[in-house]
Predict the 3D structure of the following.
Amino acid sequence: MNSKGFSLVELVLIVAIIGTLLAIGTLNFSEMNKKSGMETQVKKLYADLQEIRQQALYTKRPRSVVFSSGALRIYSSANVAVAPQSVMTLPHPTVWEGTTAKPEQIDFDTWGVAFREPPEDGKAICIEPAGNPATYDSVVVYPTMVKIGKRKAGDSCASANITIK
């Protein structure tokens, strides 16, 4: 018999296949979206810290950054008692060298140097949790430079546990 068109079984099978592919695609899309958001936050932190360091160096005026788990406050001088120049809200949970309770401060002097008593390995800012899907999930601030990297899964937020990329 020479029939034209599709049978009901063929249509149901095609709809089931399309539904399965859409479900898999939706799960992958949400994972990619989460990963992209984390990487965007890290790159924005990196760019802001680099810009503040360069402003301190070129204007010969100290600059300060106060970091807390939910925000980054940028000051146009070393005086953090005044209102910040700008505030960057951090959408993903973030930790500074293993602490979330107290805010931390980074002061860039007129030479663009971040710390007066330099830590050996720098200070790290990491997105929680460890082992997240992002390619970059950490920013490490050294006395004379800022780098981005990936924290090793399961390790605490410390510069020694971050692979610089």
Remarks:
- The first strand starts at residue 63 and ends at 68.
- The chain has one helix and nine strands.
